[in-house]
Amino acid sequence: MSGGKEPIRVLVVDDSPTMADAVSALLTDDPRIEVVGRANTGSRAVTLARLLRPDVITMDLLMPDLDGPAAIAAIMAEAPARVLVVSAVADQRNLEVCFQAMSAGALELIGKPSVISGEELRRWGRQLAESVCLMAEVPVISRRLRVSSPPPPVSGARVDIMGIAASTGGPPALSEVLSRLPPDLPVPIVIAQLITEGFTPGMVRWLSQVTSLKVVIAREGERVEAGKVYFPADGHDLTIEGNGVVRMTRTRGGPCPSGDLLLSSLARTYGSRAGGGVLTGMGEDGARGLLDIRKAGGVTFAQDEATCVVFGMPRVALELKAADRGVPLSSIPDIIRMSCRRGPMPNRPPGPEGVV
Questions:
Q1: pLDDT tens digit string along 322-356?
Q2: What is the DSSP annotation of 197-245?
Q3: Contact 133/1 with Cβ under 8 angstroms?
């Protein structure tokens, strides 16, 4: 590579020789990347991860002997690496396993192409190579750091809705947060989780298994309800407008779904009765929307560096003073519960028209 920079060393894992050939060839076309090995079983992937110490592993999930999540868990314990799941979106069983893989330590998901020839494949290959290069910049975390500490005080807070933005590392973080919230939470939660198109339904089903709240894909024109968790449909941005009505629009570029658009809409609609948070993720999406909530007098929080997979979005939110300080992931469910409590709240201005 030019400039003396070492190439990104990639291990390709797929039980299909045809797919493994295609992935290897497409990655090798990028001068920033070197394919250093291939594995066609989960156990072979663990062995090669230990021997080769690759920077990034592209991982299929449904394989002989050791499946993807089990292989990823073993890799993260024995030879930690950045794992990018490459999975067939059309396979429903695959979708379930994808999020098990993320819980085991995978960083990101990318769907397999529908065809493995022609321009569509080359386009997909460029996307895959770009994802590998982005993943190579993420610090390797051998285990998730759990920090238990009392949540910061939420003085005089009472919100009528809670919005959350997340990206890389977000699904497992959301799983931890939502699993610790009560089924009678008195407000709705709306979430913008940046994810490859096609994976949202699987994520919603997976999260539904870990929380007592009802997790759904939002529908245009419906009113949000307490005790429900809403995600936008694939390829759409979600906003909440007057009286808590869902609006969904096709994304026009940039992060999808947009955390900034979602959180800014809560600030507009709910004012000081809005709550929002930014979790782990690359880039800066969500930070400016969170600042809008802060300026409106609402409750805001940002995940701290120690518990983030990628301290990108929360770092920008803290730099903008959209939240006071970073908080551990383990404290966020308590912050949400405290912010949503009901009862007389002195010196709080009324919510927007129609919001009780």
A1: 999 899 999 999 999 999 876 544 444 444 433 33
A2: TT-HHHHHHHHHTT-SSEEEE--TTPBP-TTEEEEPPTTEEEEEEGGGE
A3: no
What's the CA gap between 191 and 258, in Å, rounded?
10
The DSSP output letter for 12 is E
Q: Which of 260, 285, 292, 304 is catalytic?
A: 285
Instruction: Give the model confidence (pLDDT) of 212-224 as tens digits.
Output: 999 999 999 999 9
Could you list the residue range(s) of the whole structural domain that residue 116 is in?
A: 2-135
Amino acid at position 202, single letter: G
285 annotated active-site? yes
- Here the CATH number for the domain that contains residue 242 is 3.40.50.180
The verdict on residue 152 lying in a domain is no
More confident residue, 152 or 137: 137
Residues 29 and 165 reside in one and the same domain: no
Among 136, 166, 147, residue whose Cα is nearest residue 258: 166
In angstroms and rounded to an integer, the radius of gyration of the C-alpha atoms of the chain is 21
Same structural domain, 212 and 326: yes
| 317-331 residue pLDDT tens | 999 999 998 999 999
CA 166 from centroid of its chain's CA atoms: 5
> Taking a C-beta distance cutoff of 8 angstroms, is the pair 300, 276 a contact?
yes
Q: Is the pTM of this model over 0.85?
A: yes
Q: Which of 131, 167, 265, 331 does the annotation list as catalytic?
A: 167
Check which CATH number belongs to the domain holding 120 and give it. Answer: 3.40.50.2300
Length of the chain as a residue count: 356
Question: In sequence order, what are the residues at sequence separation of 6 or more whose Cβ sits closer than 8 angstroms to the Cβ of residue 286?
Answer: 165, 166, 192, 259, 260, 262, 263, 278, 313, 317
Residue 291 and residue 207 share a domain? yes
| C-beta separation of 205 from 96 below 8 A | yes
